Amino acid sequence: MNHTMLAAVAESAHATLTVRQIDRPVPGQGQVLVRVNAAGVNPLDTKIAAGAGAHARQALPAVLGLDLAGTVVELGEAVEGFTVGQEVFGMPGGIGGAQGTMAEYIAVDARLIAAKPHTLDMREAAALPLVFITAWEGLVDRANVRSGQRVLIHGGAGGVGQVAVQLAKASGADVYATGSAGSLDFIRSLGATAIDYQAQSVEDYVEHYTAGEGFDIVYDTVGGSTLDASFKAVKAYTGHVLSCLGWGQHSLAPLSFKSATYSGVFTLAPLLTGKGREHHGAILREAAVLANAGQLTIRVDQQHFALPDVNEAFRQVAEGRGKGKTVIQLVSE
């Protein structure tokens, strides 16, 4: 057996990623060794490579990459529920000092992965874990999204946004989503009422779609001033604002005067703290159920990148040029 593997290594901040041979990991107790078929590229990966993203606690040099889809090739001790040859997906590494997914193999905590949906190919499955877990932790875990509610997703065409729209729809909610003019058709294709945030003020669309009452749930996937807009758009008393990018300084007055609720979503916490990892696996199993039922898809950028193209893939994500999630494919299907 070959004891080395190819991996994309961020040697230092702002440096070009290097594809080189490193030691192939050995699965420890509770881990499985996965042959990576495809690795999703997230904005956080590009930030870490640029020396930012301190909250991810990934010191360089490091193999980056949070998301994967692949095949189990070896089981560590005390692993149940997985078999060699099984196709899996998950968000198992790339932060907190752990090896990332942009490598031929990765040893992962079995609690963080799940069986790949059979309706999605490897590239699609690799694009899904981070964004779906983020959507679920907000809409389901924090806000208990349910039938009959009016839900507003800010950034409905983005990675988290497109999945949040579909998750809210599958829960029976009446879904609305903001986007730029060029993204409105895609948002409508997901089953949401599309709102051009540049053409309509918060007050205008709250009046138009809720008769001035506000939305039951508002999920901010954009951050900054969009979170402030969310406080204005939410319903009084029972309304719930969520944000996965609520990291700035904001006035709580608009929210407080409505007696509404705010929840932050920090999807990386189980990887950084070791607590709650089983829940990530459970969420991914729910994603597979929805995908297999035809209620969940993910738009993947059509450009095909292999591991040697990692720097171009990172540039595409950093510059926001992708039409959907950017994925690096390590094994041809």
Offer a few descriptive terms.
Quinone Oxidoreductase, Chain A, domain 1, 11 helices, 333 residues, Rossmann fold, zinc ion binding, alpha/beta, oxidoreductase, 6-stranded parallel beta sheet, 2 domains, globular, 23% strand
What report would you give on this structure?
This protein is α/β, with parallel strands linked by helices. It has two domains: 179 residues, Medium-chain alcohol dehydrogenases, catalytic domain (Quinone Oxidoreductase, Chain A, domain 1); 134 residues, Rossmann fold, CATH 3.40.50.720. It contains eleven helices and 15 strands. The strands form three sheets. Strands 3, 5, 6, 7, 8 and 15 form a six-stranded antiparallel sheet that branches. Helix 1 packs across helix 11 and helix 3 packs across helix 10. The radius of gyration is 20 Å and the shape is globular. The mean pLDDT is 96.
Would you summarize the structure shown here?
The chain is an alpha/beta fold. It contains 11 helices and 15 strands. It folds into 2 domains: 4-128 and 276-329, Medium-chain alcohol dehydrogenases, catalytic domain (Quinone Oxidoreductase, Chain A, domain 1), CATH 3.90.180; 131-264, Rossmann fold, CATH 3.40.50.720.
